[in-house]
Amino acid sequence: MRFAVGARLGPYVITGILGKGGMGEVYRARDTRLGREVALKVLPEQLAEDPVAFSRFEREAQAVAALSHPNILAIHEFGHADSIAYVVMELLEGATLRERLNSGALPARKAIEYAVQVAAALAAAHAKGIVHRDLKPENIFITTDGSVKLLDFGLAVQRESNLLKARSSDSPTLAHETSGGAILGTVGYMAPEQVRGETADHRSDIFAFGCVLLEMLTGKPAFLRSTPAEIMTAVLRDEPTAITGAPIEAAPGIEHIVRHCLEKNPEERFQSARDLAFDLQALLSGSARLASASGVALRYSAPKPVLRARLAWALGFLVALVVIFGALKYWPRATPAPPPPMVSEIVPPEGVQFGALAVSPDGHRLAYVGWKNGGDQLWVRSLDALASRPLEGTANAAFPFWSPDSTQIGFFADGRLKTIPASGGPVQVLADAPVPRGGTWSEDGTILFAPGYDLPLYRVPASGGAAEPVTQLDPTRLEISHRWPSFLPGGRKFLYYVYSSSQDNAGIYAGSLDGKTHRLLVRSGYAAAYAAPGYLVFTREKTLFAQTFDPESLQLAGKPVILADGLGVNELEYAHFSVPLSGGVLAYRRGGSFLGSELRWFARDGQPEATVAATDRYWSMRVSPDGKFVAVEIQDLRTHANNIWLISLETSARRRLTLGAQESVSPQWSPDGRLIAYSMRQESQHYWLYDRPASGEGQEELLLKSEGDAFAQDWSRDGRFLVYVVLDAAGKRGGRIWLLPMQGEHKPFPLAQATGDAAYPRFSPDGRWLAYRSNESGQNEIYVVPAQSAEGKWQVSVGGGDWPVWRADGKELYYISPDSRLMAVPIRPGATFAFGAPQPLFLTNILKGLGSRYAASPDGRRLLFLVGKQEDPAPLTLVVNWLSALKK
What we know:
With 888 residues, this protein is an alpha+beta fold. It has four domains: 1-91, 2-Layer Sandwich (Phosphorylase Kinase, domain 1), CATH 3.30.200.20; 94-303, Transferase(Phosphotransferase), domain 1, CATH 1.10.510; 349-594, Neuraminidase, CATH 2.120.10.30; 595-870, TolB, C-terminal domain (Neuraminidase). It has 14 helices and 60 strands. The strands form 15 sheets. The chain has a six-stranded antiparallel β-sheet with strand order 1-2-3-4-6-5. The longest helix is centred in the middle third of the chain and has 25 residues, at 306-330.
């Protein structure tokens, strides 16, 4: 290592070493001018001392730097300081293809995805007259987001023969002098003309590409022999040793492409990397599967010699002219057939799971929520590219939707409706949306959105302003909420889902901004969207349909046609599909549907222990003071209503506590375990506070009437106060914390210190403190205040937090971080509040949403969680020209 950490080379400070070889050492460095991290390659002294070689190297570096292609390593600068030559490049995180291949062959689809990107890089370079000449797995880098970067493009070759001789022992690149010149390349990846010492051109790169592609598919080199001499002989004379086998056959059509790349004669290979990339992309997009389904198998075969090929082409051209002339003269004119559907699959970046998705109105990009390491974030991907990129500032994102011009994305996060430029940039907050259920954006700049799980739809200008209701819930039809809005053409009418406890009234409706339209279109559907020139695309259960639809008269015609089955539907009845108004592109995801949740104990280190009860639609829950029972909400799938049940933590036996037809939620035990307070929905659609004996004997007692929705949250340990959260009737605030005295006049009062969207208040076991969550800082954090005083307030979470829970002895306060980790804050009980730094315990699979989702055993050694269960998710399916299948 020539430079120690901290050494300076020009404006760059060395921070570590990344690797070394025949062409120099590569360091990690910091650019002190721009404050960015870079990779800095220090070139060998022989190169810097040879003026001819140095000049040639500099020219090639400048040529490669001018390529500016996403799949080619970017060169920022070529420098010379203190007789030391260096190249400054972008810093990559990930691994080389060689490192990936050390564990064996890649899945066929993954190999083809990488191959498409490599071919695109080669095509860009070849168009500029630059040939790599040393393509191999060591020079292909796979970044952490799945993108491919080609390394040493033009830098590892075109070197003077004396330099090659001097450094051949330090590099895997073979170099020999021959009468025809130097043999440049790596044994096993050189084309036959390179082995013979002849001039290598762009078709030599295509041969090396074939070797790499074959190795990705099989895990074995194309020409595996014992010695370099035997390998070079095999390259000249033999067929690849691993050209057949199950890994190749798993991707129909790929064998023909590989063979075409590996032709011995350069004239018989692919003649351009662009054509190669096109064929690979067609294979990736499902062309082979579609063609086979119609009885036409894709064929790739080596072309005949040039003269015969030209004669065949000329003859075919003459025949085509005759046919075309006859068709124009004698045949009637016909409408050209629409292009066939093109089906492809999109896989998320490594370590990311797909969430809600939205195709841009122009059909060129996909926005989706990506779940990674327990956290949600907004990602964007061009549909003609293979890589996605996350958008900064979109943590906890949900339910994205596009602006009509495809430049902005609306989404929900931290209890608010927000927008962000699709290319990234500042986030704008538009309105409160405490429990969102989707949004849509019209051409006149109106955003229609569902701010709550039990609210109607609201509208707000995309430029900012006050939100106001558009629809009204009809209690006579048992409507619970309006959600998943989607504008029709013109932006005055829209589609939306009515969530109702009556199956006769639940379904897809058409509405209008003036409030005059409320028409049922499809009964029991989950979500719908319009696709030009005249189709309603909608879901029913897990099946996706399309039906002829007139957006003006709001009339359906004909019979619905099934587009896909097994569609993914989450716990909020959000269906994973998207189609823009213009039609043309359809995206959907099979699998990943919500199956319910289970109550399960976990050890403090995250190891799963006993399951309390079988999978069901469990929601909010609280453990009894004696630790023997858990009160839990269970949703009735017939009525969509939740009711409170008691489950024994010892025997798993359960019984229903609330027996009425109205929904009952958010159970809270009294300190002595005799009563359970809860919230029950009224005919007015608002939730009021009640309690009833935990034994089930006797009737419920009304504790509080509320103009908004009042949700019970906790009972103080001395029994004097019930703390609850009120959602404003207009849904404009996420929550306000109130305390209801359980003695005397029962006159409630607000917790003055809790500002912003406040929720989940929890009394400490000694009754001195109250922990809660609020977004007053711009993101959800956990705060602690005195329970009966306005003096003092502490933020105990770091970097975001939700769902606070106290340990029974008061020595720890738990919360869930944005990446779904369970955090523990040490607490020192006493007259003054003292706490330590949060400590991560383990990554959870907690079921997120309203209510309490976990509890701690009295000693803190075990934790009871509501854990979501879902089907295994499938890749995203993208269908281009899907309407042509309907027209047939």
